[in-house]
Amino acid sequence: MTTNTTPADQVERHPCPKCEAPAGSPCRTGAGKVAANYHTGRFALVPSLKAELTVKTPADRNPGKRWVQGEPVPVVAEAVPGAAIRIAYARCSTVGQELQSQLDILARANCTRVFSEKISTRVKERPELEKALALAREIKTAAPNQPVILTVVEMKRLARNAAELMTLSSTLQADGIQLELLSGPLQGVYDPNGAGAIVFAVLAVAAEVEREGIREKTLEGLDTAARKGNHGGRPSVVDDDKLAIARARHAKGESVTAIAKALGISRATLYRHIGESA
């Protein structure tokens, strides 16, 4: 008997947990057509294919055409879990910050898939994080015994405060997904069950304390600078010398338009400073 060894043949030895295609048949779309790719949860059941991002449906299955069930084959036993599948997430707050350093670290951690975005933690919805969690859930649904890890460089990439971190902890716990931190004092892999839940709580509080500490130091620095006469913001375009010249020329009856043009400032700015010095 000939053993089929193509990725498609290996995938079709398992029923699909997403579209419920039976063993021996291609995956199907919600519209009842043959899917172009096998669903991730299905090929994740094949240990040798767990690191693949997609497995295409063969041309002889007629992708895009009406779905037809293939010849039934015996359902194989659930695959023995292999190495953990790492789903990575990277984030920075602004366009001015760079993501590459995080991506380089995650690449060295052998992550199966990396989701990244430039978005502030003040924004409640983070699409790429949701995609990472959705993929992790899909794999766990297809292979409940398969270890799946959400990997980040540091905890602050995930949330803005303790409440959000604890919510995420509950989500990971419900889905059986582990968390891996690649840097910081609590570097390592944490299961959000049992003792891992305590670690999540400590991480959440520590992150919020750190954020509040940075905010407090910033406010203290601004207050100290203000008491020394240094105020934040852009420097004024009208210094003392320009103001003295403007006042003298204005006192001689010269128009504000002519003075502003000579000093290279706007009429509104000149009016404001003359009014402030009056």
UniProtKB/TrEMBL annotation:
Transmembrane segments: none annotated. Keywords: DNA recombination, DNA-binding. SMART domains: Resolvase. Pfam families: HTH_7 (PF02796), Phage_zn_bind_8 (PF24623), Resolvase (PF00239). The keyword DNA-binding applies. The keyword DNA-binding applies. InterPro entries: Homeodomain-like_sf, Phage_Znf_bind_put, Resolv_N, Resolvase-like_N_sf, Resolvase_HTH_dom, SSR_resolvase. One of its GO terms (molecular function) is DNA strand exchange activity. SUPFAM superfamilies: Homeodomain-like, Resolvase-like. Signal peptide: none annotated. Residues 1-22 are annotated as: Disordered. It comes from the Bacteria. Residues 85-229 form the Resolvase/invertase-type recombinase catalytic domain. Belongs to the site-specific recombinase resolvase family. This is Resolvase/invertase-type recombinase catalytic domain-containing protein. It comes from Streptomyces mashuensis.
